[in-house]
User: Fold Protoheme IX farnesyltransferase from Agromyces soli.
Amino acid sequence: MQATGETTETRAPSTFRRKLGAYVALTKPRVIELLLVVTAPTMILAQEGLPDLWLLIATLIGGAMSAGSAGAFNCYIDRDIDRVMKRTQGRPLVTGELSDREALVFAYGLGAASIVWLWVFTNWLAALLSLAAILLYVVFYSLILKRRTAQNIVWGGIAGCMPVLIGWAAVTEDLSWPPVILFLIIFLWTPPHYWPLSMKYKADYAAAGVPMLAVVRGRAQVGLQVILYAWATVACSLLLIPIAGMGLVYSTVAVVTGAWFIYETHRLYNLAIRHEQVSPMRVFHGSIVYLSLVFLAVGIDPLLPF
Assistant:
């Protein structure tokens, strides 16, 4: 008998839960959340109403599996720098909850399953776009760009734009200008979303040898770049109004939230150039709220008669 009275039967469920939790953490569920937030509204816009419920669910499941696979590959590739950065020291490959082999097998298996799932339950175009998203994030961003250039998050962010193309293709089996505009909104939004985070964890990235913009440039330069990309994001969001025939709800939300997003980036820059204490996480979290509200409006607008 164990001194604590613990038995094999009581330890087994606890071990299973820890292992399951580690696999879930490997997929970066918070990133998946945001990707699904943009997928469902895109499908509603593509359908110009509510799409078939099973198609919507199948696409979200396939998209979550695809994003989870990419996240798991990224954790495997970045396991060396994750051990150095305080922000990532709780990840499963750092804590030893999962072995490198377990993570790699899981990443390959989940990725393959996501492609098959989307091919069977949606269509071939959505499946191929999902494969492209995984390759872009794993090869283009994680292996090639991340440790070599300060522009890593700009071009590497393309992978995060793919869910809108996947969602549109799942409904229409083709691509047109509206999903391209939605793609560009996320592409331009990614730098002003992520660069404030890199300001917050500048020391972490510097210690890991990752040349994020905040590491190789001063706060004022980062703040200026955040402003420029925020303006471009909002301008692109307004293009959707004539191109997709958006109505009053989307137009109002795009203008109001866009003005607020731009204000927050200017505030960050002004504090930086005056050498005052900055609050980059305010812009980081605000950018998530901004994108969520814009895509919520994308999903609501087609359902209304005005």
Observations:
- The CA atoms of residues 256 and 290 lie 10 Å apart.
- The two ends are 71 Å apart (CA to CA).
- DSSP finds 15 helices and no strands in the chain.
